[in-house]
Amino acid sequence: MQRSDLEGAPLAVAPWLLNKVLVRGERSGRIVEVEAYHGANDAASHAYRGPTPRTAVMFGPPGFLYVYFTYGMHWCANVVCGPKGEAAAVLIRALAPMGGLAAMRAVRPAARLERDLCNGPAKLCQALGITGQDNGVDLLGPVCPPGRVPGGARSRDQGPVRLVDDGTPPPRRPGRGTRIGIKEATDKRWRFWVPGSPYVSRP
Question: I need a labelling partner for 160 at 20 to 30 A (CA). Which of 14, 64, 77, 127 fits?
Fold first, then answer.
């Protein structure tokens, strides 16, 4: 995967991200649901009113991770996209677990079924151990052995977060609908998902 793959507008990048893989050490999941957010063109975007210390990562370059805290208890992860200087990001809403399920279950004991491990933006962050400490991580950096980060430092979360293309193409006709849990721009059909996937947060 090249950084240039993520330089497009979020409405183009979002469906393209479907079926890509999010990896952290032994834990991994296939992206099955996303939402696009587009800065000054989108009242629901955190960057709608311009850059702040919180949203600086969203202004590029693409390929980095934007992590934010919501409802005073949950982390949510976004893939920064678009050209540098233009705030754009794609929220990862759901994953289909692929690897490290035992580790995911250990941190998500309330998830009785496999489909409940990562079927929501906060759930998948908890399952992969993504927190505010990962804000600004380069998702396209080298995939390191579990427990290691560049330079030989030790990571408490089993290595950095990475975005990987394993050759599985996005769906030709992704599901599409309005975004969830927002109060502004609620009419925009900027949520995309893999049709028929049991791991989508909402059909």
Answer: 14
